[in-house]
Amino acid sequence: MLTFTLDGITKTIDVRSKEKLLEAMLRHGVNAPHSCSSGACASCVCKIISGKVSMDIDLALDEDEIKDGYILACQSRPLSTEIEIKYN
Ligand code: FES
Protein backbone atom coordinates (compact mmCIF):
# COMPACT_ATOMS: atom_id res chain seq x y z
CA MET A 1 0.00 0.00 0.00
CA LEU A 2 1.10 3.52 -0.74
CA THR A 3 0.11 6.43 1.47
CA PHE A 4 0.83 9.81 -0.04
CA THR A 5 0.27 13.41 0.96
CA LEU A 6 -0.29 15.76 -1.94
CA ASP A 7 -1.69 19.30 -1.73
CA GLY A 8 -2.38 18.74 1.97
CA ILE A 9 -4.55 15.66 1.37
CA THR A 10 -3.44 12.19 2.48
CA LYS A 11 -4.69 9.05 0.73
CA THR A 12 -3.77 5.38 0.65
CA ILE A 13 -3.85 3.29 -2.53
CA ASP A 14 -2.64 -0.12 -3.60
CA VAL A 15 0.57 -0.53 -5.60
CA ARG A 16 1.02 -3.59 -7.79
CA SER A 17 4.18 -5.62 -7.51
CA LYS A 18 6.95 -3.91 -9.52
CA GLU A 19 4.65 -1.01 -10.36
CA LYS A 20 6.22 2.42 -10.10
CA LEU A 21 4.66 4.72 -7.51
CA LEU A 22 3.72 7.33 -10.12
CA GLU A 23 2.06 4.66 -12.27
CA ALA A 24 0.00 3.52 -9.28
CA MET A 25 -1.16 7.05 -8.50
CA LEU A 26 -2.06 7.76 -12.14
CA ARG A 27 -3.95 4.44 -12.30
CA HIS A 28 -6.00 5.65 -9.34
CA GLY A 29 -6.73 8.97 -11.04
CA VAL A 30 -4.40 10.98 -8.82
CA ASN A 31 -3.07 14.13 -10.44
CA ALA A 32 0.47 13.50 -9.18
CA PRO A 33 3.13 15.90 -10.46
CA HIS A 34 5.20 14.53 -13.32
CA SER A 35 6.54 15.43 -16.74
CA CYS A 36 9.19 13.25 -18.38
CA SER A 37 8.41 9.99 -16.54
CA SER A 38 11.97 8.95 -17.37
CA GLY A 39 13.95 10.14 -14.34
CA ALA A 40 15.34 13.29 -15.96
CA CYS A 41 13.25 16.30 -14.95
CA ALA A 42 12.69 15.88 -11.18
CA SER A 43 9.13 17.22 -11.36
CA CYS A 44 7.92 14.06 -9.56
CA VAL A 45 10.25 14.50 -6.57
CA CYS A 46 8.75 13.60 -3.22
CA LYS A 47 10.09 12.54 0.15
CA ILE A 48 9.84 9.06 1.55
CA ILE A 49 8.50 9.08 5.11
CA SER A 50 8.50 5.33 5.73
CA GLY A 51 9.07 2.12 3.82
CA LYS A 52 11.56 1.32 1.09
CA VAL A 53 11.70 1.72 -2.68
CA SER A 54 14.23 1.07 -5.40
CA MET A 55 14.75 3.62 -8.14
CA ASP A 56 15.44 2.46 -11.69
CA ILE A 57 17.06 5.81 -12.50
CA ASP A 58 18.00 8.55 -10.04
CA LEU A 59 20.01 10.93 -12.21
CA ALA A 60 17.75 13.90 -11.44
CA LEU A 61 18.69 13.73 -7.74
CA ASP A 62 22.03 14.46 -6.13
CA GLU A 63 23.55 12.31 -3.39
CA ASP A 64 22.47 14.64 -0.59
CA GLU A 65 18.86 14.62 -1.77
CA ILE A 66 18.87 10.82 -1.86
CA LYS A 67 20.42 10.70 1.64
CA ASP A 68 17.67 13.05 2.83
CA GLY A 69 15.03 10.63 1.55
CA TYR A 70 13.99 12.28 -1.68
CA ILE A 71 12.86 9.97 -4.46
CA LEU A 72 11.55 10.17 -8.01
CA ALA A 73 8.02 8.76 -7.98
CA CYS A 74 8.27 7.94 -11.69
CA GLN A 75 11.26 5.66 -11.07
CA SER A 76 10.46 4.14 -7.66
CA ARG A 77 9.19 0.61 -7.22
CA PRO A 78 8.11 -0.76 -3.83
CA LEU A 79 10.51 -2.84 -1.75
CA SER A 80 8.25 -2.88 1.31
CA THR A 81 4.54 -3.59 1.65
CA GLU A 82 3.85 -0.20 3.24
CA ILE A 83 5.28 3.02 1.84
CA GLU A 84 4.53 6.59 2.82
CA ILE A 85 5.59 9.59 0.77
CA LYS A 86 4.96 13.31 0.91
CA TYR A 87 5.10 15.97 -1.77
CA ASN A 88 6.29 19.48 -0.84
S1 FES B 1 8.64 12.82 -14.09
FE1 FES B 1 10.59 13.54 -14.73
S2 FES B 1 11.94 12.66 -13.24
FE2 FES B 1 10.00 11.81 -12.72
Please describe what this structure looks like:
The protein has 88 residues and is an alpha+beta fold. The protein has a single domain, classed as Roll (Ubiquitin-like (UB roll)). The chain is 14% helix and 33% strand. It has helices at 21-27, 63-67, and strands at 2-6, 9-13, 45-50, 53-55, 70-72, 76-78, 83-86. A five-stranded mixed sheet has the order 2-1-7-3-5. β1 and β2 (9-13) form a beta hairpin. The longest helix has 7 residues, at 21-27. The chain is globular. The two termini are 20 Å apart. The chain binds FE2/S2 (inorganic) cluster (FES). FE2/S2 (inorganic) cluster (FES) binds next to loops. The site of FE2/S2 (inorganic) cluster has 13 residues, from loops.
Q: How do the strands and helices of this protein lay out in sequence?
A:
Elements lengths: L1 E5 L2 E5 L7 H7 L17 E6 L2 E3 L7 H5 L2 E3 L3 E3 L4 E4 L2
Parallel strand pairs: 1-7
Antiparallel strand pairs: 1-2, 3-5, 3-7, 4-6
The protein binds FE2/S2 (inorganic) cluster (FES).
FE2/S2 (inorganic) cluster binds next to loops.
What is the CATH superfamily label?
A: Beta-grasp domain
Number of discrete domains: 1
CATH architecture: Roll
Radius of gyration: 11 Å
Give the CA-CA distance, first to last residue.
20 Å
Strand proportion, as a percent range, falls in 25-35%
Record the strand order, biggest sheet: 2-1-7-3-5
Bound chemical compounds:
FE2/S2 (inorganic) cluster
- Give the helices and strands as they follow along the chain: EEHEEHEEE
Q: Helix share of residues? A: 10-25%
Largest sheet entry? 5 strands, mixed
Number of helices: 2
